[in-house]
Amino acid sequence: MTPDLGFVHRYLPGAEESSPTLLLLHGTGGSEEDLIPLGQDLAPGAAILSPRGKVSEYGAARFFRRLAEGVFDHEDLRFRTHELAEFVEAAAEEYGFDRSKLSAVGYSNGANVAGSTILLHPGLLRAAVLLRAMVPFEPEVTPDLSGMPVFIAAGRMDRMIPPDNTQRLADILTEAGAEVDLRWRNVGHSLTYEEVGEAKEWLAGVLQGL
Q1: CA 41 to centroid of chain Cα atoms
Q2: CB-based burial of residue 168 (10 Å sphere; 0-12 exposed, 13-18 middle, 19+ buried)?
Q3: CA distance 97 to 51
Q4: Catalytic positions, please?
Q5: Which of 61, 67, 162, 193 has the greatest CB tally within 10 Å of its CB?
């Protein structure tokens, strides 16, 4: 039976005790099951921690509220981000994975809450793969993200995310010291096999260094 750590979630142990762990964060309407195949493809043998967003938008699970398309409820976003960080810390204690080897993989709404977590809880995540991400908020104080690897996959034809918004996110993270690898493709909001392949190759290089 899965312990109650505040989120409905799945945890899959890694191939070895020393394996890295992926925090999988689904998009709007997803569940804790959605990204598990992607996570297993991106980092074979890694442990997987996959929570379900606790906010319901007309029955669709999300990680935080929004006021309209692309307009976030920033108060709720901050609250939910702290809540997610507490869950991660509780899960590390419950399952015994090494928090220093924890990387996030988020898609859309999940990528946005991952971005918020990076800014509000620097040091919680070792690295991040942000797929179709936006600026969660403009930080009042620039966090220290020195040397943190971040991969961002963006679509120039994405009707949900203006390209300059994703570029601004990359700039915020870079200004904070993160090592950002922003990849653009002439695609929409859906992921492509080519992007998954790029993310897998990038992540393999990052995880080798852990």
Answers
A1: 16
A2: middle
A3: 16
A4: 108, 158, 189
A5: 61
SS3 36: helix
State if pTM tops 0.90.
yes
Locate 44 and state its tokens: 């074979």
- Beta strand 21-25 with 102-107 is parallel
Would you give the DSSP letter of residue 207? Answer: H
Beta bridge partners of 47: 21
Q: How many CB atoms lie within 10 A of CB 180?
A: 21
Residue appearing with tokens 């994975």:
97
Q: How far apart are CA 132 and CA 157, in angstroms?
A: 11
Alpha-carbon distance 166 to 151, whole Å? 12
Q: How far apart are CA 35 and CA 26, in angstroms?
A: 6
Q: Which alpha helices (DSSP H) does 96-192 contain, by range?
A: 109-120, 163-175
- CA-to-CA distance for 129 and 106, rounded, in angstroms? 6
The dihedral sign for the CA sequence 170, 175, 178, 180: positive
| Amino acid at the residue 145 | L
Per-residue pLDDT tens digits for 56-89: 999 999 999 999 988 999 999 999 999 999 999 9
Name the strand (E) or helix (H) holding 77. Answer: helix 74-95
